[in-house]
Amino acid sequence: MKGADAGAGAIECEVLECNWWPVQVYLRCQQTMLAGMAGAVLLGVSAVEVRAVCSLMCVPRSAWPDVLDGVQAVAGMVAKIENDKAAARAKSKD
């Protein structure tokens, strides 16, 4: 649940019109995580998650394949960034 300060420290960025649906859907999806002794690793967003959000947001069905591709691309980039940050934190503790 988002709190009152959920927007604190938010960064504004321009989103191209062709990426509008993928970004909006990604923001409402939950990343899949694999948790272990070394911490959590982000894996991305499942197609089932994207389909559910597309359906709930009334994304036109004809756009679903492109939205899926876009969401998974964004999720992959975010997962890489976050996983690299976690690895750097773990390495700095050594």
Identify the notable features of this structure and list them briefly.
52% helix; 94 residues; mainly alpha; two-stranded antiparallel ribbon; 2 strands
Show the helix and strand layout:
Blueprint: H1 20-28, E1 32-36, E2 39-44, H2 47-56, H3 64-93
Antiparallel strand pairs: 1-2
Helix pairs in contact: 1-3, 2-3
Low-confidence stretches are none
The helicity comes to: 40-55%
Largest sheet: 2 strands, antiparallel
First-residue to last-residue Cα separation: 34 Å
Total number of beta strands: 2
Structure summarized in a few sentences:
This protein has 94 residues and is mainly α. It is built from three helices and two strands, in the order H-E-E-H-H.
Characterise the protein shown here.
It is a single chain. This protein is mainly alpha-helical and 94 residues long. It is built from 3 helices and 2 strands. It has helices at 20-28, 47-56, 64-93, and strands at residues 32-36, 39-44. Strands 1-2 form a two-stranded antiparallel sheet. A hairpin with a 2-residue loop joins strand 1 (32-36) and strand 2 (39-44). Helix 1 crosses helix 3 and helix 2 packs across helix 3 (64-93). It starts with 19 loop residues before the first helix and ends with a helix. The mean pLDDT is 88.
